[in-house]
Amino acid sequence: MKPALTTRASAPAVAASADLQPLLLPTAPVEPETSVLDVARLFLDPRHAGLLSLPVVDAGRPVGSISRYELMRVFLMPYGRELYGRRPITALMNARPLVLAAATPLDQAARAIATHIKSPITDDFVLVDAEGRYLGTGLVLDVLRAVESRLAERGGELERAYARLKSSQLQLVQSEKMASLGQMVAGLVHEINTPLGYVRNNVEMSRELIGDAARLVAAQQSVIDALTGASEPGADLDARLVEIEALRPRIDAAALEDLGGLLEDTLHGVGQIGDLVLNLKDFSRLDQSGLQKADVNKLVDSALKIVQHLLRKRDVAVMREAGALPEIECAPAQINQVLLNLLGNAIQAIEHERGRIVVRTQVLDGRVLILIEDNGKGIAVEHLSRIFDPFFTTKPVGQGTGMGLAISHQIVEQHGGVIRVASKPGVGTRFLVVLPIAARGEGA
Ligand SMILES: Nc1ncnc2c1ncn2[C@@H]1O[C@H](COP(=O)(O)OP(=O)(O)OP(=O)(O)O)[C@@H](O)[C@H]1O
Ligand SMILES: [Mg+2]
């Protein structure tokens, strides 16, 4: 019989395919009547050095396999060689080898190997075509390698997918940031534009008025000079008088009073722009002044003092419930701003006579709670999710910038705390600020 041929040109191309085809070794099969001694000789052929077993094939179909291990076991027996050497290999072969179709998917093959082949591994498996005809042999080790490299490949794929996901998420966050920045800038432009518009208008009107006034004074002066003989009465006296007549109805006491009003409005507009800029400055970062130990009760009381005149004006009663608090680490000016924003909103929300604001402080689970509750008009359900957005306001133009809560949210978060709202339209609103005793979080 011909020696079996099992050389392989190159390493199996496992990655490309998902079945056993690339692992196929075209091993020349052993015929059933081949003697045990001949088979032993075949195993000594260096071309079969890598094989654990040889397939036994009859009329193109695998009928068994004979392993190196089995031959050695027999040959090691006393007289084993003599007893079995001349018998056909069918006397020793494994009649139930693992037979797999070449098209078997890798993972399925790995499962079959795991259940069929015992430890220690003494056999290779036999590969057949779809009709069960013998094709060649396959090595258990090759399957393991193939599975491993597929796993590695999948791992690589996963890693690449993860990297792609991460970068696209980053882009998303980035574009979201840009969008909210754009929104902020747009809102800011709008907010600044309104006062800027009337400031410019007022300044122009004032300049016109002042120009007229200057011309009137000059004309009157030259007439006076002519009349008092300080200068030669020139030919232009008449023209001067006509000019004075024209200017006088425009520049009178009322006009000058108007000018005062215009300038006052202008100052107000400039003040509004200044406030806006200040708010934005605060919005950008936690105060550089840094952290200090502070008594939140004191901060609350000083905020209440600041809004006292507003409370009195609207006849709003304040119920102050101050719990014993440990000092907390915070930027006091910033916390003050949060309190002023919340109190200001509460006062502005009250449109009836029975105004009442509860301000309670307490310590809970090592954190300081500040509760500010009003019985004002409440917040519409559809607005609740937007009140912390920069420039979200329901107040008339000129009354609210919509930055109060956005800034407050930012400040509280930078302190490592949380701010929560609960509201019922027509009943009232409750804001809860929770601050850690030791500040943490970015910037704090
Ligand atoms: N206590 C409250 N009761 C009812 N509505 C509130 C209350 N607090 C906030 N709001 C609603 O949330 C919106 C946003 O509040 P925020 O403080 O951010 O801006 P604003 O008060 O409108 O303007 P600004 O604070 O800049 O003057 C308000 O316009 C209002 O509709
Ligand atoms: Mg506000």
Describe the overall structure.
The protein is an alpha+beta fold. The chain has 3 domains: 21-138, CBS-domain, CATH 3.10.580.10; 169-284, no CATH class; 292-436, Heat Shock Protein 90, CATH 3.30.565. It has 12 helices and 12 strands. It has helices at 36-44, 68-76, 80-84, 106-116, 140-227, 237-247, 253-284, 296-306, 308-314, 332-349, 381-384, 404-414; strands at residues 53-58, 61-67, 99-101, 125-128, 134-138, 292-294, 317-322, 328-330, 356-364, 367-374, 418-424, 428-436. Strands 7-9-10-12-11 form a 5-stranded mixed β-sheet, covered by helices on one side. It has a 3-stranded mixed β-sheet with strand order 3-4-5. Strands 1-2 form a two-stranded antiparallel sheet. A hairpin with a 3-residue loop joins strand 11 and strand 12 (428-436). Helix 7 runs parallel beside helix 12 (404-414). Residues 1-16 have low confidence and may be disordered.
